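To close the chapter, one final illustration. This time we ask the reader to focus less on the individual chains and more on the assembly as a whole: which components sit near each other, and how the overall shape emerges from the parts.
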Amino acid sequence: MSILTTEPVRLLLSLVCIMAFVGLNAAYLVLAERKGAGRFQRRPGPNEAGYGGWLQPVADVAKLLSKQLIVPPGTDSLLFRLAPLMVLSPAMMCLAVVPFSETLVARNINVGLLMVFSFGSIGVMAIMLSGWASRNKFAIISAARVVSQNVAYEIPMLLVVITLLMMTGTMDLNQIVRQQAGGFWHWNFFKVGANPLMPVTFVIFFICMLAETNRAPFDMAEAESELVAGAFTEYAGMGFGVFFMAEYANIVLGCSLATVLFFGGWQSPFGLWPGLLWFLLKLYALIFTVIWVRWTFPRTQFYGLLNLSWKILIPISLFTLLLSSAMLKIFHS
Amino acid sequence: MTAPPDIARPTKPQETFVLNVGPQHPAAHGVLRIKMTMDGEFVTRAEPILGYIHRMHEKMGENRTWAQFLPNTGRIDYLSALHYNHAFVGVVERALRIEVPPRAEFIRVITSELNRISSHLVWWSAFLIDLGGMTPLLYAFDDREKLLDLLEGVTGSRLTYCYFRFGGLCNDIDDSFIAGARAFVAQMRPRLKLYRDLVTDNIILRKRLEGIGPISAEMCRKYGATGPVLRGSGVAYDVRRAEPYSVYPELAFEIPTYPAGDSMARYLVHMAEMEQSLRIIAQALDKLPAGPVMGKVPRVLRLPPGDYCFAVEAARGRFMVRVVSDNKDIPYRVKLRTPSFSNLSLYEEASRGMILPDVLALLGSLDLVIPDIDR
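The assembled structure is written out below.
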């Protein structure tokens, strides 16, 4: 037992666990997405491989792994190979500070939230690199779109998070969860006493999260009816598979953050058994919403998307920021 | 969205690049290639390049007898095969002055309108896929499946029908078809309402389509665009009313028009046309007379020398067959005037200065069937 609790071993174990968590989630969220899409579209979804389709992810991964990794001539081969690595690693790094329960957190650092956002921005660079290195016109258009989209949506997201930080006064994610203890009315989502627009800030956060993870209705990076497969057009086999995994890893990360920041993380809504169970329940409920949105709405138009951020979301989030600082000044000073 | 003034600056040739959309592109719905000259995301010129699926239907028509060419007509616009059947049997009947029994004409109208609905459903779902909405496809194909089952029962095929004959139909409909068609009309009306609630009123869809890709009535006239494209520009032109054929004059229906001329107007025209088709089917089923479905037709078809044409309102617009006969059993010349070809012609002018997603939304809203363009 003693060797397991020493810091280097514990870190290594946590890292392995996070990688397994991301890998399993990516594999089985693909299945969940396809099953969910099937239900929304009045069809059963994949049901051949294994009982009820449970082996489908294994079959998919085996197929992707057995495919040749093609690096097309004319590409920047170093960047082309580097991009899939760069896209997956930030999401894994960020999960290291996410508290799954009071004790189940890989590395509890007191600027956790800052770390999540700084690493989260690297993923954009990776997609941009993949588009740039591919030397494909569709990929380059997609890369340019991803950058402008992410710049546009990072701002309202950070403004919303700052609004929240003024309430919590800490960047330690576990500390933020602890502050929301004792029943669902203590969750930040329902703390209308501190800021009456709290639910609105969550909606902004959620929209920005969809945009940051390039999910429908904001999936400009791989708008398949316009850009074929966008930045990933030239990738084959597992190179493409890694981008796919990264998309789901980012969804898991985004939804975990939403859970921690707005829905009390591992806290129980009624004070019953706080812990991992509640965290996962909330996490997967949010992920289900993400899947639900994708299969319900058509894609937004690119300029409409940017206008939504610059003309609607940023003014609203600035207003909530002002409102909650004013309320802090009036009621808490 | 057209380019804002600060972006839509005159560009030097070296600042643009060429993007080939198609012939194997998810948005092209077939082997249509569009050579786009792009300035960033703005399209300065979109030039459709045709010929990837040219099958020489017109030449084929000049090499075979009238009856042998009839199945070809179902393969030109495979989504509205019965209308194309109708135009070709119509031209032969007009030349030979064949009397078609009224029952046959009513059944032609009923099946044609069912075919129009199924074609519009395919357009609707494919168009929404262009816009990134995947789910409506499965709902639309659920309804279309019922239609195809119905039509399969009387025509024997599910897509490329060859049901009409010179002088009538190849076989009569039975009671199960009539009951099935009535049931379909009854269940399709609430479905159209469902589509309106779920899709048409969606704010994202409206933002994508309203004001996008405006086509003026003037532009339609210049390029000869017909069908939903023309009616979406506010012109109430419909061959069923303008050059009445079959029993359409006996049936009450409206020509839905929307004056805006944008993609949303074309979308709404399609949706309203499905409702009107249901109305026509319901009336025609009520008025359906008894009697034979085949008129008196000479054993060997030999059209008197002359130049004949017959136009129908196909799902995509005016389809006209023009034939020249020199008193042989094969035509001297067959000319097919297909709606998709004319509707595509205005694309280059209409798409100028728009951004890539809108250009592709405009392409989808024109309701093109590529074999109909290339023939």
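Chain A has one domain: 75-332. The interface with chain B takes residues 37, 40-43, 137-138, 141, 144-145, 216-217, 219, 223-226, 228, 295-304 of chain A (CB under 8 Å). With these observations in hand, you are ready for the problems at the end of the chapter.
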